[in-house]
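Q: Could you fold this chain for me?
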Amino acid sequence: MNPVRVLVVDDQALFRRLMGAVVEETAGFVLVGSAASGEESIVTAGLLHPDLILMDVNLPGIDGMEATRILRADTTPAAVVLLSTYDEEDWDGQAEECGAVAYVAKSAFGPDTLTAIWAVTGG
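A: Sure. Below is the predicted structure, expressed as structure tokens.
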């Protein structure tokens, strides 16, 4: 089985590294790249063709929700998981409105969460 190819998008370099480390430490997943803005995520996803994009909600320029809408309009879109510091109950239903498969609070993100979300998306 091929590993799940993951793109990490966050405007904070520290969190990009943290999410990337979680991806690399999770069996069956590989980090293929990162981006610091919504615009950069669109370009990078077009070049790298990830299976899964971990997208911060609050980004400079195009925010994570708008970038997700654009990315999901592609002919072969990646699954997108939105992340932010807000509690999950604050985002109930909003992730799906832009085409994301899930919303996860950054404080809850880890290998088990990553694996569970991918299992639910159907790979």
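A (continued): Residues 13-25 form the longest helix (13 residues).
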